[in-house]
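Exercise (ungraded).
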Amino acid sequence: MVKFLKPNKAVIVLQGRYAGRKAVIVKSFDEGTRDRPYGHCLVAGIKKYPSKVIRKDSAKKTAKKSRVKCFVKLVNYQHLMPTRYTLDVDLKDAVAVDALQTKDKKVAACKATKERFEERFKTGKNRWFFTKLRF
Amino acid sequence: MPAFIGHSWQDDDLSLASSYSIPKPPHPPTTMVAAKKTKKTHESINNRLALVMKSGKYTLGYKTVLKSLRNSKGKLIIIANNCPPLRKSEIEYYAMLCKVGVHHYNGNNVDLGTACGKYFRVCCLSIIEPGDSDIIKSMPGDH
């Protein structure tokens, strides 16, 4: 009886183009809105996972391999699989619902989440989130 | 060396790691004496379920069970024993996130449908309001 679809929860997208990708809930709309009369949430996820970095890679190669490509999307709860993991990265100021209205706002939101994800990846925390889900 | 080389993700700190465990394989078959005892508790579950059907709120079926877990309205989940294992694990995982009890019903979906007084098969059901029944107090956390 504990609500678990809250901001900072790590989820896996199950349907659509980003099926199988890990994402983090930024904002959840349990009751839905006028346009979307069902429970849904705004997620920021990983479009392209960072590659595996090995010890003998040069600094330039490491930088290239640790790039993360992100997406921002409104997803129905039914198309998400919640997990027990959380990712406390502050994305509220980077990603807002109005970021999905126009293309350039969306690109700016994705760029901002890309920075946050990349710096979190480089610290080595939340390693589960940045590994590709094998299926 | 950057911090993300050559480690596994197991050293993340996880919120619910201790409480979730992989479900154990089923126990060896019960003896005659134990079978009699499970028959009595089995009937009492049926009685409690009948009372919930009469006086409480419930939903039947996989989709609505997941919905009730997502909006944290479900208080007890009952799963039939011939539920497909992937679906069973999924419902158990959601229930673990919600901290809601799951009861594995001793019977298949046909029996569970009959116990609910319905003429169709019920693989999983979620009790939202127990009504007059004490089913939630008497058999939570069965796993």
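Further reading is listed at the end of the chapter. For now, observe: The mean pLDDT of chain B is 82. The radius of gyration of chain B is 18 Å.
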